[in-house]
Design a protein that fits this description.
alpha/beta; disordered N terminus; 5-stranded mixed β-sheet; two-stranded antiparallel ribbon; 40% helix; single chain
């Protein structure tokens, strides 16, 4: 059973894990917004989804020093500006989470039938979202993740913001806002008993049963 759980965990995260397999080692797991801090859990305003920003809703960064370091690594100015502006406001994460949950639910209910019925019954209170300081290593696949959903605990982890400046994925910018929606999609898929990934055209309506 433990082996099946591990395999399933990696299945739902595979699309995000694989894109960083070589590039992360080429530049290291750089913390663009600094170290995580201990902060209390919060709840999204509309759906009450529990999450923890680890302080990245109000980053504490020496931007003069950080920007010089990024410029030396050839990070484009438009990327530096986006990183420096992250997340935009202290309540941005709660809004992103609610928007993502409602967007995914709408995608599922638009399919109609049994899938819509199941999606309407998916609980917002079962998931827990944690914001990570950088990409992290997932030993099952021997690679790095920017986002992951763990079905055994219903935890979602997403990196705050990450830019790949070296290796085969050079130029990739990953943002928590987009990663949250992707992983909530995986959560819905598991709860609705369809295949989370890979996602064929027309997903989730075209997804095979899991």
């Amino acid at each position: 059973m433990a082996g099946l759980k591990a395999a399933f965990l990696c299945l739902v995260s595979l699309a995000l894990l694989s894109i960083f397999s070589g590039s992360a080692r080429a530049q290291g797991t750089f913390e663009f917004l600094g170290d995580p801090r201990f902060v209390a859990d919060q709840f999204s305003p509309r759906n009450g989804i529990r999450y923890n920003t680890q302080g990245f809703d109000q980053p504490e960064v020496n931007w003069t020093k950080k920007i010089l370091k990024l410029q030396r690594r050839g990070v484009p100015d438009y990327v530096i500006n986006e990183i420096a502006a992250f997340p935009g406001s202290a309540d941005a994460f709660g809004s992103w989470i609610d928007d993502a949950f409602e967007s995914v639910r709408s995608q599922f209910t638009a399919c109609g039938g049994t899938l819509a019925d199941r999606a309407n019954g998916v609980s917002a209170s079962r998931i827990y979202i944690r914001v990570m300081p950088t990409i992290w290593y997932e030993p099952y696949w021997g690679t790095y993740a920017a986002g992951a959903y763990y079905p055994d605990t219903n935890e979602i982890r997403v990196v705050d913001i990450y830019y790949t400046w070296a290796g085969p994925q050079e130029g990739w910018l990953r943002h928590a806002r987009d990663l949250i929606e992707w992983e909530i999609g995986n959560y819905f898929a598991v709860q609705c008993k369809i295949q989370p990934e890979p996602r064929p055209s027309g997903w989730p309506c075209t997804a095979p049963p899991q």
